[in-house]
Specification:
19 helices, alpha/beta, 5-stranded mixed β-sheet, 13 strands, Rossmann fold, 2 domains, about 575 residues, metal-binding, about 10% strand, transferase, about 35% helix
Length: about 575
């Protein structure tokens, strides 16, 4: 059984690899790595490839991309990765990210990897002390050709080189196959030159589909580099029955193709999911080495706590994925005159985050996250070019499981939304904020009310109300103006309920829900929204959809008397109140 390089936490110091003269792969050959022989690697690689083929057939997907990366997977999980199979939450482990990370836009994995590397560098700067390297790990990112064709990926790569993130390694599977057809873009023809010019260490492996030893040497060279490392692994689509021109990624193989591949690998085509004991023996020491590595890091952390107790308490708090209490102190205090507001930066609004919908939806099961999503711009910002702002995109977010979609109406409710996000340890929070400065309601709004999902925003002046109006997010200004029209023009008394989050409201007691909505015979409840009418039938008798929603390029006389649209809404509500009175 081969002893791996991961047996000791301080292996990099005890067995410092010394570069030899570069070989024909342009990789510094590392010493003292304890690698298995080439013939042993070939046997394990062929068996793993055969297993991948069977797995692809079981899942009805094409396994060719996974087969090309089989050698890389063995090099990573057998030799290079620092991790503990017994504990996936081991904090000082290496992180590995695939190209799409969460079925989002192509190439976002590079951005995530750079962000993780920055976060780890920040933690190391905060908590590492002389003699105590409690944060010391790598971030690995595996990408393909399409990922490097994205402009946002190249921007992230430039940032990593500028900040010298030597704890980051991008492994590029160069196969010249994008999502469809053959990749021949200028952006990836000279990618090595681009990486060197942006401050990266570049390593190239011509036979990356099979040379586990060369890949392992490159990975350890990345771990000891003083710059971020870019490893270009050349792989070919021509393997067995695979052809480079075949662009079908999501189609399973035919039975004859499976037989052809297994025969070319020297395997029995009739054996399904064949995994002999020699494969288990090859990886047997990974579990024990990972556990030993974790135990030694924990012992080092205990020693660190004796010398730096305050920092150790903070670090353990972060390792436990808990929120520091002092974050709540960063929120501005409530002010009778309202919190000073600033506009969001000029951007494409929700149009620019529409492609992130899968990324937002899938990680909701992963726990504590927060997203800021701008709402529509009702009118052009002063001095800015008018543009159309679509508003349909956030509609699905309230229906995503384990997700809190909060629409605050002003700065005070925004503070409450951030309070919810900070305290939600097991849920994703999406906060929709207006891009322009919203109207402020310091005498009505409440951050504590946001925590409850909905609350009574305004009561009528004396007497009972004729109608209950529900306002949501930045549409609250329309709701309050409608309330004023109902009172001044039609003499109707109305109470207003602010409803920033349906899911939070559903978690409250029936008594609280009753006290907020106060459903009464002959007195209607009307919700006024500009988007997302689904779900409001549980709380309101009528939903009024603001007709001019999304037409941000058309200025409206919001500051010149009553808005004609609000006059029309108020007129319809008056007719509704009259029709309900007959049932009192």
């Amino acid at each position: 059984m081969t002893r791996t390089y991961e047996l000791c936490e301080n292996a990099l110091e005890m067995l410092t690899p010394q570069p030899r003269t570069p070989n024909h792969h342009e990789i510094p050959a590392m010493v003292n790595l304890g690698l298995a022989r080439r013939d042993k690697h070939d046997i394990i690689l062929r068996l793993c490839m055969g297993f991948i083929v069977d797995l692809g057939q079981k899942l009805n997907c094409n396994p060719k991309f996974a087969i090309r990366k089989a050698a890389l997977g063995i090099a990573l999980y057998k030799y290079a990765l620092k991790y503990s199979p017994k504990n996936s939450n081991y904090f000082n482990r290496d992180r590995i990210i695939t190209s799409d990370c969460a079925s989002g836009p192509t190439g976002q994995g590079i951005d995530h990897a750079v962000s993780m590397a920055i976060a780890m560098k920040n933690l190391a700067a905060l908590y590492n002390k002389p003699g105590f390297e409690v944060i010391e790990n790598m971030t690995w990112c595996v990408v393909d050709d399409p990922c490097l064709q994205q402009g946002v990926s190249l921007e992230a790569i430039s940032v990593a080189g500028h900040w010298n993130l030597n704890n980051l390694c991008i492994i590029y599977d160069s196969n010249s196959i994008p999502c469809n057809g053959v990749a021949d873009a200028e952006s990836i023809k000279h990618v090595e030159t681009t990486m060197r010019e942006t401050g990266w260490n570049v390593i190239e492996i011509p036979d990356g589909a099979s040379n586990i030893t060369a890949i392992t040497n490159a990975l350890f060279s990345a771990r000891t580099s003083d710059k971020p490392t870019f490893i270009k692994i050349h792989t070919s689509m021509r393997f067995g029955s695979f052809e480079a021109a075949d662009a079908s990624q999501n189609v399973g193989l035919r039975a004859d193709e499976v037989s052809n591949i297994k025969t070319s690998l020297g395997l029995n085509p009739d054996e399904i999911f064949y995994m002999p004991h020699e494969v288990y023996d090859f990886f047997a020491d990974v579990r024990s080495c990972g556990g030993m590595h974790e135990a030694e890091w924990q012992a080092s952390l205990d020693k660190y706590e004796r010398h730096h107790p305050f920092l150790a308490d903070q670090l353990r708090f972060l390792v436990a994925a808990k929120t520091l209490n002092n974050r709540l102190e960063c929120l501005p205090e409530q002010s009778p005159s309202g919190i000073e507001v600033t506009e969001l930066r000029d951007s494409k609004g929700l149009l620019s985050i529409g492609h992130l919908t899968p990324e937002v939806q899938i990680p909701t099961s992963e726990g504590h996250q927060a997203h800021i999503a701008p709402q529509e711009r009702i009118r052009p910002r002063k001095g800015k070019r008018a543009r159309h702002q679509p508003t349909i995109l956030p509609a699905p977010y309230p229906d995503v499981s384990n997700n809190l979609h909060i629409r605050p109406c002003d700065s005070e409710e925004a503070a409450g939304a951030f309070l919810v996000a900070i305290q939600s340890d097991d849920r994703t929070t999406i906060i929709s904020l207006p891009q322009q400065s919203p109207a402020q309601f310091p005498q009505y709004s409440s951050r504590e009310g946001v925590i409850l999902g909905a609350y009574v925003f305004a009561e009528p002046d004396g007497g009972d109300s004729d109608v209950t109006l529900i306002g949501v997010g930045s549409d609250m200004s329309c709701t309050m103006e409608t309330r004023t029209i109902l009172s001044d023009v039609y003499g109707l008394k109305s109470r207003v309920v602010s409803f920033p989050c349906q899911r939070l409201f559903e978690q409250q007691s029936p008594e609280y829900k009753q006290s907020v909505l106060r459903p009464r015979r002959g007195r209607p409840t009307v919700v006024i929204v500009a988007q997302g009418t689904n779900g409001w039938e549980r709380y309101a008798d009528v939903v009024v959809l603001i007709a001019r929603s999304g037409k941000g390029a058309v200025p409206t006389p919001l500051d010149q008397g009553f808005n004609p649209q609000q006059m029309e809404i108020a007129h319809k509500i008056r007719r509704l109140v009259k029709s309900f009175r007959r049932y009192r």
